[in-house]
Amino acid sequence: MTDPDPRVLRTLRRTAERVDAATPVDRDRAVDALRAFAILGVVLGHWLVTALVADGASLRAASPLAEMPWLAPVSWVFQTLAVFFLVGGHVATRGYESARARGVSYRRWLSARLTRLFRPVAAVLALWTLIAGLLLVTGAEFMTVHTLVKLALSPLWFLLVFAALTAATPLLTRLHPLWPLVVVLHVDLLRFGLGAPAWLGWINLAAGWLVPYTLGAAWTRGELDRRRAGWILLTGGTAATAALLAWAGYPASMVGVPGAEVSNLNPPTLAAVSFGLAQCGLALLLRERLRRTMRRPVAWAATALVNLSAMTIFLWHQTALMATTATGLLAGRLPGLHTLPDGLDWVAARLMWLPVFTLALAGCWAAFRSCERGPARRGGRRRGRVVRTHRTPGSAATEGVRHV
Fold it and tell me: Which residues contact 202 (CB under 8 A, 6 or more apart)?
């Protein structure tokens, strides 16, 4: 293997230094680092636990967690949605309070945030509408098309929930996280303890994610600045989750598993919420270490790149997986890509496919990143200016990052 070209390394280092220099000194880089971690956790988690098994001419969804339940701890590492909502609540609350102080109306503030959040969605919907139509016209099985479209569009549920919480931010800035946690507790007691209808659990779709979102608002108010708060959340959330898994019958996996009676994620259960509290506690404890790490220009430039492309990465990572899977079918039934995820050989093969998924995602990023940036930021008109917008976890943070 040849060593990297020193000229390329020097160019990358100079670029990283310019990005670092263009960032305001008062920016909390730990927020961006946590957001990047959450995004990459979701992407890697989906790539590791989503399998498309080829049965003749059709594809069906499967999961290694269904075939190998002892792999459930993998989901504990990559189910990072609570960190999404923690950072989202923090940034939205801070942004709203700043806008109000500047005399910006709620309507204008919300319109700007939702536009940035949903602008890139149109490209995903348009492309997959076209793909689904072409597949059906050319004779593809309906269940195969349904599986592909469902996987491709599955990230959109997050945007809808996040948009609703963003719209309610003025009402949530002072809401104590204990109140939505109590709602989740009572919903689960009714469902699993008293035999209430399963549909009641969908109340937790809002209440469950309200918990980390309102924790983010508490972070903005300065109520979580002490390390003691992080330790309480981490130890309390961990103990509660362990107790719920051991004695209350909740599944160990923190993501949905095909064929399972109960999912911790769809809708969120008390176990998922308590696990999220532990994650939020750990995130808060890591803030100072992340701030020190983000002072390194290369680390900060990589984090800024992920944040600048957050929506593109989030919306297109499943498409990258499916594009690789469909292309691979031309070479036959490939291990780790089209085979049943029922053993460690599949896990080893899937790990080998991750760089290919990354290349496919890079292609999607190159093709669709302009949708995320929007027309006002295309071309060279903004080159050399400092951009001071603060985006949500779904729409990236670019405050203080200079276009280079």
Answer: 267
